[in-house]
Amino acid sequence: MSGICFADTAVQQPPDSSGSPVVVTLSAPKPIKKILKKYIRLPTEPFASDYDKLLFLHRVQQEIRDILATEGYFNATVSIVQQAHPQSAEIKIDPGELTRVGSVTLEFTGDIAGGDPQHRERIEQLRADWPLKSGQPFRAADWEQAKSALIDGVTQQAFAAATITRSQANVDPGDARADITVMVDSGPVFYLGTIQITGLERYDASLITRLAPFKPGDVYQRELLHQYQITLQKAQQFSTVAVSIAPDTAQHRSAPVQVMLTEAQAQRFAFGAGYSSNNGARGELNYRNHNFLSRAWNLTGLLRLEQKRQTFLAGIDTLPDQNNINYSLGTSLQMTDIEGLQTIEQKVGISRNYQTPSIQMQFGLNWQREHKKPAGAINQINEALVLDWRWRRLVVDDPVNIRRGDITELRIGGGSQLFLSDQDFIRTYAKHQSWWPIGANDVFFLRAEVGYTLASSRFGIPQEYLFRAGGIQSLRGYDFKGIGVQEGNAVVGGRVMATGTAEYTHWLTQQWGAAAFADIGGAADRWQDLHTFLGYGAGIRWRSPAGPIALDLARGHETGSLRVHFSMAVAF
After folding, report:
1. Which of 89, 92, 68, 69 has the alpha carbon at shortest distance from 79?
2. Which residues partner with 169 through β-bridges?
3. What is the DSSP letter of 465?
4. pTM (2 decimals)?
5. Residue 533 to residue 519: CA distance in whole angstroms
6. Which of 23, 41, 334, 469 could be bridged to 523 by S-S, CB 3.0 to 4.6 A?
7. What whole-number distance in Å separates Cα of residue 35 and Cα of residue 298?
């Protein structure tokens, strides 16, 4: 079989069955040859006749000129050097000088050019944001992307029907210069009208309309419609949502907002299984009703069975209003057996919740009864009625696989003997996590957390409002919640805690990475008694669709022991 090579000099291939080799070579600068190899196919079989050879060479010459023109080479020379062998030829390419952008003229008509100061500022910003600047290479792909970015910038606010009425690039191959002119007609300013809903069957239209972040008469903003769509997509009642307006200039004074949606199944059961080195193997059963009492409230039931913890909970969540506020009512029963401490906890509570894409805030009132049974110590019944405030801020590039960003969490709560609590206490907690990209593939991660419960004694306070350390997301190299206060043969929560983590991850591929880490900190009943524990090690990371899964081997510096830390969950 004949062969083809991309080389500056002809390389003879073994002859075909007829004894006539096919050798067609490209001779060009390396960057040009790299471009052409993506698009040009050279023959792999002998030419049937001299006519077929001439036809191929004529066609490939034109293809090369067209390809180079899209890359900014408008004055390329493509010539054919015939070889002694009738089946061979050399294609020589001289790309010439790369054409660069000369003058750039962006002109605007329509309401945007009407003299409004804000519109004038916007025009200047659009001109400043134009990506294809004077002196840059003039490539066809860049030219199309620049026009697309320009019209996208105009239509994102007020001018939904903006169009490009003229786009011209005057290319002078002799001077290797391209002068650019683009004219944009913004059309009229669009104002949002009423909401028109398609696909709603089970729920009242007010469920949709009251979540809108705008009112009729507001100036059109694409971001507002995008936020509205995200809010509706988060509602469990809908499986698909699309929000848009028609760019019809005849309706620009009151453009209907089109909401097209598909309702999700109202009730659903789900099963899951998983494993964590913290709590061992687990299985769970979920039940959800997204139209509880026909009010579009969310009813949730969960039964989760783990080796060290068993949980049953049920809750009702109202829908968020236009201010992103909703209310929750819940109850739970949980049993644990961790580090010699057995607990049986009953809890009921109500909370007011506020949530945006970056901020979560919760203010709640919870009553809890805990039966505490430490091995080798006295059993206790602890009760508390707690006012609890939580705040969380999340600013990351990707919620699933973070490379850059910060997460900050604060919590403060407390109870009083005057109001159904066995002990006066105030619990405070703070946690901060930061990610920084290092180079193209690596990530550096820092975590710090601190907790302090102000009280005369830890006795009478449920374990949720005290602190233990150890395990995943705390101190690797030590048992889960294995660091705290010794009570009999059990480890129980203390009033103080501080831990931190430094971790470096190098991603070897898109899915697989390796990490090195160090954890430090401890938990105790008083700051004076806090002993610092150190854990360090290395692990493997896998980017799953649900987020990174970690398998770590850690050494506890204080004990010298090695522990494997791993977690994985699968939903069915």
Report:
1. 92
2. 180
3. G
4. 0.71
5. 8
6. 469
7. 56
- pLDDT computed for residue 568 by the predictor: 66
Quick one: three-class SS letters along 12-28?
CCCCCCCCCCCEEEEEC
- In words, the CATH class of domain 267-571 is mainly beta
Two domains, one topology: 100-185 and 192-263: yes
The full DSSP string for 188-219 is SPPBEEEEEEES--SS-THHHHTT-SS-TTPB
- Three-state DSSP string of 26-73: EECCHHHHHHHHCCCCCCCCCCCCHHHHHHHHHHHHHHHHHHHHHCCC
**Residue pair 309/295 in contact by the 8 Å Cβ criterion:** no
Which position has the token pair 């062969």? 3
Q: Cβ of 252: how many Cβ atoms within 10 Å?
A: 21
Please tell me whether residue 6 adopts helix, strand or coil conformation: coil
Q: How far apart are CA 221 and CA 192, in angstroms?
A: 9
* pLDDT digit string, tens, across residues 520-561: 999 999 999 999 999 999 999 998 876 778 999 999 999 999
Are 236 and 264 within 8 A, CB to CB? Answer: yes
DSSP state of 224: H
Domain over 100-185 is classified CATH 1.10.260.40: no
- CA separation (Å) from 384 to 236, 315, 422, 550? 33, 20, 6, 36
pLDDT in tens, 357-369: 899 999 999 999 9
Kindly report the length of the chain.
572
- Single-letter code of the amino acid located at 500: G
Kindly state the DSSP code that residue 479 receives in the 8-state scheme: -
Residue type, 381: I
Domain 192-263 fold is Ubiquitin-like (UB roll) (3.10.20)
**565, 481, 473: which is closest to 519 by C-alpha?**
473
339 burial level (CB within 10 Å; 0-12, 13-18, 19+)? buried
Under CATH, to which class is 23-94 assigned? alpha beta
DSSP-assigned letter for residue 278: T
CB 512 within 8 A of CB 550: no
CB 183 within 8 A of CB 107: yes
Alpha-carbon distance of 435 to 445, in angstroms, equals 5
Q: From CA 334, how far away is CA 462, in angstroms rounded?
A: 13
pLDDT, tens digit, 9 for 90 and up, residues 155-182: 999 999 999 999 999 999 889 999 999 9
Strand 255-263: give its sheet, edge to edge. Answer: 192-198, 255-263, 238-245
The rounded distance, in Å, linking the Cα atoms of 197 and 242 is 10
Show Cβ contacts of residue 57 under 8 Å, excluding neighbours closer than 6 positions.
80, 89, 91
Per-domain residue ranges of the chain: 23-94, 100-185, 192-263, 267-571
Backbone angle region of 19, left / alpha / beta, with phi > 0 → left and psi within -120 to 50 → alpha: left
Give the bridge partners for 163, in sequence order.
185
